[in-house]
Amino acid sequence: MKYIVYLLLVLAVASMVFNTIQLDFSNLLEGNSQIALISIFAALCVAVLMVIMIMAYRIQDKQNEL
Questions:
Q1: Among 57, 36, 56, 42, CA closest to 11
Q2: CA-CA distance, 54 to 58, in Å (whole number)?
Q3: 2-41: b (≥16 Cβ within 10 Å) or e
């Protein structure tokens, strides 16, 4: 399960990079830039959730050692 979390984290970061390239900074809220901006925020949410999951796994491992 840990490997899936890391894989999703890497995919979220890759999605953020790809969508950042797609942005048109002169018109951020029009056309494809709007879709890219929404996708960046969605990937950011996924990345934050995966970091929380990784931290939860580390806490669980430390509790199991005791």
A1: 42
A2: 6
A3: eeebeeebeebeebbeebeeeeeeeeeeeeebeebbebbe
Rounded CA-CA distance 4/25 in Å is: 34
Closest listed residue to residue 40, CA positions, set 66, 61, 60, 13: 13
Q: What is the pTM of this model?
A: 0.85
For residues 39 and 19, the answer to whether their CB atoms sit within 8 Å is yes
Q: Could you report the per-residue pLDDT of 13-66, keeping only the tens digit for each? A: 999 999 999 999 898 889 899 999 999 999 999 999 999 999 999 999 999 988
> Cβ distance 46 to 54 under 8 Å?
no
Domain ranges of the chain: 2-65
